[in-house]
Amino acid sequence: MHIKDYLSATMLSKKTSATLDSIEKGDTEKFIILKNNAPKAVLMSIDAYETMEEEIEDLRLAALAFARLKSFNPEDALSHRQMMSKFGK
User: Fold this and answer.
1) Is a pLDDT exceeding 90 seen at residue 1?
2) Distance between CA 27 and CA 4 in Å, rounded?
């Protein structure tokens, strides 16, 4: 982290508009908000947040798939033909 990534809560309250503009323009990726010199929050663009949420969901689904593969037994699986006859049209 760079020192420019940190922003005091006091400075944020004084320069909210400029800070949001900086994030929107892409001048900075995120700000770590400090209160009493301790990190309290992260401020980032909505696009960066949504991308992060999607990546976390992708990782969660991948972990679930790998866990299921460990207990997968091909003998218990249904074939495509069986699935189509059971659920298909």
Assistant:
1) no
2) 11
Boundaries of domain holding 29: 3-72
Q: Look up residue 76 and give its DSSP letter.
A: G
Structure token pair of residue 50: 């949504």
Q: What is the pLDDT of residues 4-44, one digit of tens each?
A: 789 999 999 999 999 999 999 988 889 999 999 999 999 99
pTM, whole model, 2 decimals? 0.69
Per-residue model confidence (pLDDT) at position 4: 76
CATH of the domain at 61: 3.40.1620.10
The secondary structure of the chain in percent helix, strand, coil, rounded to multiples of 5, reads 60, 20, 20
Query: What amino acid occupies position 13?
Result: S
Angle at 60 between CA 28 and CA 5, to 5 degrees: 15
In the chain, the number of structural domains is 1
Tell me whether residue 87 is in a domain.
no
